[in-house]
Amino acid sequence: MFESLSERLGGVFERLRGRGALTEADVRTAMREVRIALLEADVALPVARDFVEKVTEKAIGHEVLRSVTPGQQVVKIVHDALVDMLGPDTAELSIDVTPPAVIMLVGLQGSGKTTTTAKLSRLLKSQGKKVMMASLDVNRPAAQEQLAVLGTQTEVQTLPIVAGQQPVEIARRALNAARLQGYDVLMLDTAGRLHVDQALMDEMKAVADIARPNEILLVVDSLTGQDAVNVATSFSEQVPLTGVILTRMDGDARGGAALSMRAVTGKPIKFAGMGEKLDALEPFHPKRVAGRILG
Ligand code: GDP
């Protein structure tokens, strides 16, 4: 994960640490390199620029340059700024409500939404929650069956399929079933599209009006870099997203989506998909991720 960014930054830091004393010019040169590394990682331009400005301002302070280990101090400033950029803390789910808590997953087709619905259900089940999943995807053939299969694999209940129902009707039926049968959490997997379009947004809004979700999580593919951030911006303009799940982080050598998401959209990344297997979903820990990037 994020190997190429990590390698680039590693080189910059090695040069910084290698010097006894640092001048302002040294710091500025290093920060130019950091900026290039961030842009190569597909971090959004304004985010990379802000980051470098903030770090430079702190790093050329007298206390830093005159300290015994200026290189180390600059590296620490970069580390703290990275954590800040990724989000200050692990963002918890707000599901401590009168049951059933409703979690709605939205996103484009192929982003990993259905798989993530099953992964998150499995995770919540392992934490002792009684979870039901329902697929509202009536567009993609066999989408509802795909979730049912994942339900069998994860031993999570899925709402029985009734042919011909529309998303809002399915949401209503799922909510009733979850209430009557005493479920703690209802997971709603919504239909995706190839692109953000109005029909998709209208459908999501109609479902959200009925289901009143406690969480609306956007699933985006981390490999798509800044596109993932653009998708998140479009969605958050239309529906009140409570967070983002970044999938395929296991294959992301660059990290641009993870690094820009919070700053551009204001939405926290709550989970990271780390593989195809159903146990490959982790809470997103900004500190841990910053640590991995900085090696
Ligand atoms: P949907 O169209 O958004 O519902 O996407 P799917 O859930 O069907 O996922 C599409 C493909 O992405 C499947 O082959 C998944 O196994 C794969 N996938 C989903 N999440 C991850 C992840 O975190 N890492 C990897 N490597 N593959 C993933």
Automatic annotation (TrEMBL):
EC supergroup of this enzyme: hydrolase
Subcellular locations according to the entry: Cell inner membrane; Cytoplasm
EC number: 3.6.5.4
GO BP terms, alphabetized: SRP-dependent cotranslational protein targeting to membrane
Cellular component terms per the entry's GO annotation: plasma membrane; signal recognition particle
Record key words, sorted: Cytoplasm, GTP-binding, Hydrolase, Nucleotide-binding, Ribonucleoprotein, RNA-binding, Signal recognition particle
Domain notes: Composed of three domains: the N-terminal N domain, which is responsible for interactions with the ribosome, the central G domain, which binds GTP, and the C-terminal M domain, which binds the RNA and the signal sequence of the RNC.
Family statement: Belongs to the GTP-binding SRP family. SRP54 subfamily.
Protein's name according to its UniProt entry: Signal recognition particle protein
